[in-house]
Design a protein that fits this description.
The longest helix is centred in the middle third of the chain and has 32 residues. It contains eleven helices and ten strands. The protein folds into two domains: 143 residues, Rossmann fold (3-Layer(aba) Sandwich); 152 residues, Alpha-Beta Plaits (2-Layer Sandwich), CATH 3.30.70.270. The chain is of the alpha/beta class and 310 residues long. Strand 3, helix 4 and strand 4 form a beta-alpha-beta unit.
Length: 310
């Protein structure tokens, strides 16, 4: 019962206590949670606080018109869609047309018929449900577009967006910012020896190590193949190598077995960052981190190399 009542929140805007009561009587037994406002200013305050699914407003209000209220509601595109019904005692079509042009979805003429109001509210509920379903699907598609399907980590696109955002924050507020690129040592040999299914398990295990040991304020992701990336902030220069070595050590401690003796895998890491922001951009830091990874590979693998800020 409580779930049904909270499914559709309705804001009723009318300076007439009689009509507020009439609307309450008609809708109180349906799946609606009702809130009332006596004028446009109160309506906008409640709208911003509660983001109702449906607004029923009189066209004539004490402070400004229902038409203006519609316009203000429609001006905020960041909120979920609100179904707006305007009510008027004026049977002239001109006012109804103005309300629809201002963004109203439907209208009722006072005195309204109970059955007609319930029918029009039903139309509103169906459109709200469709908008909610579309919003949920859009959000899911956005998540898929930013997620690596094998590991569940952020993909290259999502990491670049996040890193660019954090880099701007570092530039404004002066906190340390680091890009860490890591890949699995001799990964091709793992694939060739044990098969691609085994390689996928190693990639997933590496991703899990990164995910479990990355703070909520930071981010890790997969660039592609066996190459991964971390965005770390607020880590002081003297601690960054030790911080990244924890990822390396925890991955190296894992054992894998594929119908034979247990084997271990290792990873190498390259790090680049800024501390007192020198104005470098994401692409430049990524290039430096890649260079450090290259040096780590040539130093014997299973190690960390850091490009310290100038």
């Amino acid at each position: 019962m409580n779930e049904a009542k909270s499914a559709y929140e309705v804001l009723v805007v009318d300076d007439s206590p009689v009509y507020r009561k009439l609307v309450e009587q008609v809708l109180s037994c349906e799946a609606y949670s009702l809130t009332f406002a006596r004028d446009g200013a109160e309506a906008m305050r409640l709208f911003e606080e509660r983001s109702p699914s449906i607004v029923i407003t009189d066209l004539i209000l004490p402070d400004f018109s229902g038409i203006e209220l519609c316009q203000r509601i429609r001006s905020d595109a960041s909120r979920p869609y609100t179904y707006v019904i305007v009510m008027t005692g004026d049977t002239e079509k001109a006012n109804m047309v103005k309300g629809l042009e201002a963004g109203a979805d439907d209208y009722l003429v006072k005195p309204f018929d109970t059955g007609e109001m319930l029918a029009r509210m039903g139309v509103g509920r169906r459109l709200i449900d469709l908008n909610r379903e579309l919003a949920a699907k859009t959000q899911k598609m956005e998540e898929v577009a930013r997620t690596d399907p094998l590991t569940g980590l952020a993909n290259r696109r999502a990491i670049e967006e996040w890193a660019t955002h954090q880099l701007r924050g570092s530039r404004r507020h002066g906190f340390p910012f680091w890009l860490v690129v890591g890949d699995i040592d001799n990964f091709k040999l793992i694939n060739d020896t044990y098969g691609h299914a085994a390689g996928d398990l190693v990639l997933q295990a590496f991703a899990e190590v990164l995910k479990k040991n990355t703070r909520a304020a930071d981010m890790c992701g997969r660039l592609g193949g066996d190459e991964f990336i971390l965005v770390l902030t607020y880590v002081h220069t003297e601690k960054i190598e030790r911080t990244v070595n924890r990822f390396r050590e925890r991955f190296a401690s894992l054992s894998f077995s594929w119908n034979g003796p247990s084997v271990q895998a290792t990873a190498s890491f390259g790090v680049a960052g800024v501390v007192c922001h020198e104005g470098q951009e994401y692409a430049e830091l990524l290039r430096k981190a890649d260079q450090m990874l290259y040096e780590a590979k040539h130093a014997g693998r299973n190690c960390v190399r850091v490009c310290l800020p100038e």
